């Protein structure tokens, strides 16, 4: 990704800075003069976009991804249309969680679970580089992986049953996450560790609604994060929408100052970018309005809000997100300095690419 035209925080207007706080999903798989994504980028300047292969709302097979050539063309056009280089993100963990599927002409991938079972770190790094090379060739610069969740609950519908964890022990998860990140770094692909502070013990799925891990979560679920942060391998972390009463009696982790500012920043020493899991998951969208979720997220310490626009029929418009944050600034709920903190981290991340 070119960074010769990467602005500094002081060069951006308030509206432009707020735009950097959002990573948006969109409909369509090309850019034409009247496409919604082109208008969004030119008018409202998001920090990034996220790509999906399937339209989950309308249960249709093609969303943003049709073929390697089409994706390359799309990502090239997206970057060309943006004044500030975009983060172009995707969920390409491997195995069941892969948007660039063989049926669209992309290479086969292996799940975290299968890599953990093989338990060969050199092989994990090699396979990770194979995934990252596919992303690089497609013009994608951010992979929402590796998953650091422990496979502590074999009945977990969203982690264990989808083969998304390297294993049950923090030590094994840490080793393979290290190898996975190193493989991606060889191809200059940004990784994002997820789902903080740990989703592996939950039986429920935050896509569907409220999930409480108070009685199942264990402190060793933080161990992989602590090690990777200390080793400088963890530059971006995605939050989980899980609820833990002992961490925060009121809000889920994504919106919790105690979880993000105290536990993650202060206790674990994380200084990188914190991104939310999809804010349209029902664990958030069923309980908070757009403005409320943005206010609580900013107060908690989120840097980037992800709106995939692929879970609910009602699309979230970037202009409405920006307007809501502008109102929060005008009302004195959020300071411009607070926004500057996040934008500084985001631009630093983009510079590294």
Automatic annotation (TrEMBL):
Residues 14-349 form the Glycoside hydrolase family 3 N-terminal domain. Gene3D superfamilies: Glycoside hydrolase, family 3, N-terminal domain. It comes from the Bacteria. InterPro entries: GH (IPR017853), Glyco_hydro_3_N (IPR001764), Glyco_hydro_3_N_sf (IPR036962), NagZ_Beta-hexosaminidase (IPR050226). Keywords: Glycosidase, Hydrolase. GO terms for biological process: carbohydrate metabolic process; peptidoglycan turnover. GO terms for molecular function: hydrolase activity, hydrolyzing O-glycosyl compounds. PANTHER family: BETA-HEXOSAMINIDASE-RELATED, GLYCOSIDE HYDROLASE FAMILY 3 DOMAIN PROTEIN. Belongs to the glycosyl hydrolase 3 family. This is Glycoside hydrolase family 3 protein. It comes from Gracilimonas sediminicola.
